[in-house]
Amino acid sequence: MPGPDARYSVRGEEVAAKVFDDEVVVVHLGTCTYYSASGSGADAWTWIERGHPVGEVAAAMAERYGIEAARAVADVARFVDQLLAEGLVSPAQGEAPGIRPPAPSDNGREYAAPELHAYRDMADLLALDPPLPELDRPAWRTAGDDGRE
Amino acid sequence: MTGGSSASRDSGHPEFELLVESARPRFVAGAPAPIPHGLDWSRVLDRALDQAMVPLLHRRLAEAGWEGVPGEVRSWLGDRSEENRRRNRLLTIELLALLDRLAAAGIDAIPFKGPVTAHICYGDLDARPFGDIDLLVAPGDVRAAIRIMAGAGYDPLIPLSATQRAAFLRHRTEYPLQRPARGGIVDLHWEIFHRQFCFRLEPDQSRMRDLRLAGQPVRTMGSEDHLLVLCAHAAKHLWVRLEWVAAVGWLVDRDRGIDWDIAESRATALGGRRMLELGLALAEILLDVRADRPPRPRDTEVEALRDGVLARLREGAAPPQDWWRFYLRTRERRRDRALFLARTAVIPTIGDWRMVDLPPALRGLHYALRPFRLLGRGIRGLAPEAEDGAPRS
């Protein structure tokens, strides 16, 4: 479990991440795996990506979502473990950023523990066309013809 | 720019009408029309897939509250839209990462089609399906770009020997690459479009526009050029997808900044005026979208092409084998038609190179072999192979 001073950086050569609306999408380019995190997960990713120590991230989560500090620490640590296991981040070198992660006022969102959803079927999605649902006749579509450009 | 009656209504193809309704940038009556009863939903979904309309159909049915839509249809559309969303975001991230890499090496790459079209036309990355990334670089940067992409893990999609690759780069205008993990295909272009099609669009640097994809600034061609690319690309592929009409319609409807004098004069200079007019005519008749410009004289050839496309879209008919006749008719200049036929007959394709891997000194023989290979394939041999774009767009 990562300690409060542990910091991480995104494995830039293999991993790319962007924010779409309130969803952070992380792609491992080497494996073509797609990861998604929203809500507290998007917040946690953003702060971790900026190089903030785990303890600061947990404190910011506790403040933003009004949850107990111990719960935030445990949830963030679990999230970081997930990121490490998927090879998306590695321990960071150098100095931590000198500012605390932002903790804006009440965002109206209910707290749920940060979670990373992995989709490992992207190569298939890029190549294949799913069958149509069974309606009044059986699915008849074949792969690779879904009108994508 | 919208309103009036549509020639697509009451066509006796209610499934197609629903797709047309889904393609419109505005509701005809100002609010979503009720979903018709008695639809053949298998046909709706089949057509939606064929015509790249799944995301827009999903949006349309959601706006109408899913009333009368079978649960399995709703569920299937939801799943496909979610998959489309993930695929588009993955490809957008891949595009942005590539742009960063190329820019770091001093290569100015212009993204077009794919996420750029989704953003420019619909303002929504998820509104259209795309399965690859298109980048335009200067011809002098192609080899360096390929090296950089190889460093990022991209391999040629079509294995070629060193000899074949050298010839490919000299004679073709795009090079497809892909990661071994089967990420998105990247079509690296150094011209738009293929020489065979005699339509070489060089982006108007004075009309370039900046947009933001996932918060990252991206520079791409202006709306006038984008419109020409949409129309030329669709003409090359016989306008077989309703979504291509939708993209034109949404762009014309949303972008009030289109300079029609520039769009028309550039189209005319490229010999692509008829292709532009056909795209606008389809958007008008199907989607009730009219370009904000003075009325133009009737063009019976454009009307005939438009009606042919409309009939095929309505019927869901397969594109004709003699697609090249259609393409010829979309070109107004005799010299472009003649060049198209001549180049189709002599420019070697990947298939030609693969058939015989000639050493550098004998590469010219590919030109001599090409007509014989075409004859061997019959008139269908005129059809472009995969790298020419028609089957895999």
Brief digest:
Chain A is 30% helix and 18% strand.
Please explain how this structure is put together:
The complex is a heterodimer of chains A (149) and B (393). Chain A is an alpha+beta fold and 149 residues long. Chain A has one domain (8-127). Helices cover 30% and strands 18% of the residues of chain A. In chain A, the strands form 2 sheets. A 4-stranded antiparallel beta sheet of chain A has the order 2-3-4-6, covered by helices on one side. In chain A, α1 packs antiparallel against α2 and α2 (54-65) packs across α3 (69-85). The longest helix of chain A has 17 residues, at 69-85. The N and C termini of chain A lie far apart (44 Å). Residues 134-147 of chain A have low confidence and may be disordered. Chain B has 16 helices and 7 strands. Chain B has helices spanning 14-23, 41-50, 54-63, 71-104, 114-122, 142-151, 162-171, 223-236, 242-254, 260-269, 273-287, 300-315, 323-329, 334-346, 350-355, 365-377; strands at residues 110-112, 132-136, 155-156, 174-178, 185-189, 209-213, 216-220. In chain B, the strands form 2 sheets. Chain B has a 5-stranded mixed beta sheet. Chain B has a two-stranded antiparallel sheet with strand order 6-7. In chain B, β6 (209-213) and β7 (216-220) form a beta hairpin. In chain B, α3 crosses α4 (71-104), α5 crosses α9 (242-254) and α11 crosses α12. Chain B is globular, with a radius of gyration of 21 Å. Residues 1-7 and 384-393 of chain B have low confidence and may be disordered. Classes of the chains: A alpha+beta (149), B alpha+beta (393).
